[in-house]
């Protein structure tokens, strides 16, 4: 019985050794490929980014004048007003390497700033929509959530709350449209959002 057991042991050891070397080679190739792409991206010269699809905040999203005594609405208004004269870009799904290669390495700090502005915007819109809904201002909440979706927000709650409003209105067409927009997201949240929407339909 010793020899069969030894043979099995040697086969397993050989397989594990082969597997380990194969994995190491794949990791090394992946790392080398990454640095090749990174070096290429770092050498990309500055490109014109003045005509990108910058996001503008509509004035109608600031319906606070008659509700200025609501503290939570005021907290949402401040960042929106601050962002209204800043550049905002939705760069969800793009890596820094891709951004440098597409727009030039020198533009990366600016692009990251514009992307951060987008993150602040969609978070604020989600908070604003929720508060408006709490106050019974469903039309304003619907408008706020719909704008967030139109610019590519990937916040799950934004889609859920808007879907609930559409369901309350028995607006099946808008629900289908919302699902279509969620399906087009280039975000890790896409699958979760679609799962949530399927539960609401």
From TrEMBL:
SUPFAM superfamilies according to UniProt: TPR-like (SSF48452)
Record InterPro entries: TPR-like_helical_dom_sf
Highest rank taxon of the organism: Bacteria
Annotated protein name in UniProt: Uncharacterized protein
Native source species: Eubacterium oxidoreducens
């Amino acid at each position: 019985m010793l020899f069969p057991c030894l043979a099995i042991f040697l086969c397993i050891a050989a397989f594990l050794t082969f597997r380990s070397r194969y994995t190491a080679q794949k990791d090394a190739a992946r790392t080398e490929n990454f640095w090749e792409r990174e070096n290429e991206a770092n050498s990309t010269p500055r490109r014109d980014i003045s005509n990108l699809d910058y996001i503008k905040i509509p004035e109608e999203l600031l319906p606070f004048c008659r509700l200025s005594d609501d503290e939570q609405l005021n907290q949402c208004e401040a960042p929106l007003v601050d962002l209204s004269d800043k550049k905002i870009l939705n760069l969800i799904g793009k890596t820094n390497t891709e951004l440098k290669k597409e727009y030039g390495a020198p533009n990366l700090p600016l692009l990251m700033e514009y992307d951060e502005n987008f993150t602040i915007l969609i978070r604020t819109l989600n908070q604003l929509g929720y508060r408006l809904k709490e106050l019974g201002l469903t039309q304003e909440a619907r408008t706020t959530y719909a704008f967030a979706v139109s610019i590519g927000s990937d916040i799950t709650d934004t889609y859920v709350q808007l879907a609930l409003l559409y369901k309350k209105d028995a607006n099946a067409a808008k629900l289908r449209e919302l699902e279509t927009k969620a399906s087009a997201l280039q975000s890790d949240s896409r699958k979760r959002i679609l799962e949530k929407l399927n539960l609401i339909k």
